[in-house]
Amino acid sequence: MKTNDLIGLLATGVAPVDSRTVTRRFGAALPLGIVGALLIMSLFFGIRPDIRALMVSPVFWAKIAFPFCIALAALASIVRLGRPGQRVGYGWLAIGLPFVVVMVVAAGVLWEVQPDERVSLLLGKTWKICAFNILLLSVPTAVASFWALKSLAPTRLRLAGAVCGLLGSAMAAVVYSLHCPEMSPAFWSVWYTLGMLLPAAIGAWLGPRILRW
User: Fold this and answer.
1) For residue 89, is it within any domain?
2) What is the dihedral of CA 172, 174, 175, 179, to 10 degrees?
3) CB half-sphere exposure, 32, CA atoms < 13 A
4) Tens digit of pLDDT for each residue in 77-125?
5) CA gyration radius, the chain
6) Which residues lie closer than 8 Å to 31 by C-beta, 6 or more apart?
């Protein structure tokens, strides 16, 4: 059989892939993951009792905006990673920019206070548990993201797994913000960042094992 005949045979009956498949997959997976994170938070942590008063605080919305922007960038990147041959492009810049902004703001906050106050701003009251709480809350959304991505065609499995973990942890940090008592960007720059990077590292390890076709 000639090469052209073989190609024609393999191509017979192939239907075009619906471009909305990715949107449908993640549109179904992410709400389930977020609901799961909210349920875990309600069972183990609870929502801050002063949450209504915080709704008028710009700092509170900044705390939510930090991981939310990372989640949006991670989602855009993971959609591209699910399609063979597509580059993430500026997605890496979009993922990294919120981290840089928060670190710059944190440096400014620490610069303005007395040296003996800096450690308390960095550690807050919950530094021992913050990153691990975000890691726990990241599980439902990370699992849902892996499920959605596995049905696509990722080729860079370790990278795709890392972004799945980051997406899960970023959404977990958004949910955790409803409970977390810490309001200093210096705290977020260390412990929220660590809480988001831990699941990303775990996702990078799991990617080749779970996403392999």
Assistant:
1) yes
2) 120
3) 14
4) 998 888 777 777 888 999 999 999 999 999 999 999 999 999 999 999 9
5) 20
6) none
Q: Count Cβ atoms below 10 Å from residue 159 Cβ, excluding itself.
A: 17
* Residue 204 falls inside a structural domain: yes
**Structure tokens of 184?**
């200093």
For residues 126 and 195, give the distance between their C-alpha atoms in angstroms, rounded to a whole number. Answer: 12
**Chain segment 8-31, per-residue pLDDT in tens:** 544 454 444 455 667 788 888 899
How many C-beta atoms lie closer than 10 Å to residue 52's C-beta? 8
* 41 Cβ neighbours under 8 A, 6+ residues apart: 47, 137, 175, 176, 178, 179
Structure-block tokens of residue 7: 């190609």
Look at residue 5 and tell me whether its pLDDT is greater than 70. no
Single-letter amino acid, residue 191: W
Asked, for residue 29, whether it belongs to a domain, the answer is no
Domain limits for position 151: 37-210
Q: How many domains is the chain partitioned into structurally?
A: 1
Q: Residue 160 CA to chain centroid, in angstroms?
A: 12
How far CA 178 is from CA of 2, 83, 173, 199, in Å, comes to 64, 34, 9, 20
Residue 23 located in a structural domain: no
Place of tokens 């988001």: 196
